[in-house]
Amino acid sequence: ETVAPAFARFRRQNLSMDACIANYPLCTPARAILLSGLYSPQSHMTENGQTLEPVVPGLGDAFQQAGYHTGYIGKWHVYHGENTFVPKGPYRFGFEDWHVWANTNKHYDGITFNPETGERITMPGYQPTRMTDQAIDFLNQQKGAEKPWLLVVAWNPPHPPYDPPADDKDSYNPSTLKFRPNVRLSTPADDLLRPYPQLESFETLRQAEQGYYGGISAVDKEFARLLKTLDDNGMSDDTIVVYTSDHGDMMGSHGHVAMR
């Protein structure tokens, strides 16, 4: 709780769904489920890098039709990979205020787009912080607005690479981190599960865990900034906040490291 206080407090004060599973624990298919409401066999989204076709109204469409102003900031990853501009139209799935980022696995000095022209814009600094800056701008613009609003903020960490700011990483002592019961080193048979990185030493895992948990602490600070903005703008009492993920991390389970 001392290294992720905002998440701990949010979990303690609200509904925590602790027995959920990812319907398809891979980035693009999982995000397609969240955006479309379709299972992967229905949307044909089964691998990273695929494009989600607008065969049904998306999440933004549903809220827009209900009278909401809709915004999306951060990782998209359901349109021709991750580094392609999405022009205005049905492939934005109803999100009007659209600030999607490219190359989100690069957690520093990331790339976003001008939402009108598609011009690539370099955003210096730690990516989640700059995404949160955009989100705070969105929230400030909605203060006093007549229309309700929906905002999706899609940070990438604690996704690999495990490279949070030093202060957050150093909050964890690698030697004290615990392993899951099914953690083991890789074997030759694990080649069947490539391209997921293999685990060759427990020292590698401890270093990965330190960066993984440090990434959680870093995002915790950005989450706290968003909640504070809601408080400062008098929005907390009539805003529903949902925090979720598209998938988890192997972290040594079955001999593998990184996202499944």
The unreliable regions are: none
Strand content: 5-15%
Shape, principal axes of CA atoms: globular
Indicate the radius of gyration in whole angstroms: 19 Å
The N- to C-terminal Cα distance equals 26 Å
* Structural class based on helices, strands and sheet pairing: alpha/beta
Q: In which order are the strands of the major sheet placed?
A: 4-3-2-1-5
In quaternary terms, these chains amount to single chain
Number of strands: 5
Mean pLDDT: 92
| Biggest β-sheet strands, sense, barrel | 5 strands, mixed
Walkthrough of the structure:
Helices cover 31% and strands 12% of the residues. By secondary structure, it is α/β, with parallel strands linked by helices. A five-stranded mixed beta sheet has the order 4-3-2-1-5, with helices on both faces. Strand 2 and strand 3 (108-113) form a beta hairpin. Helix 5 runs parallel beside helix 7 (202-232). The longest helix is centred in the C-terminal third of the chain and has 31 residues, at 202-232.
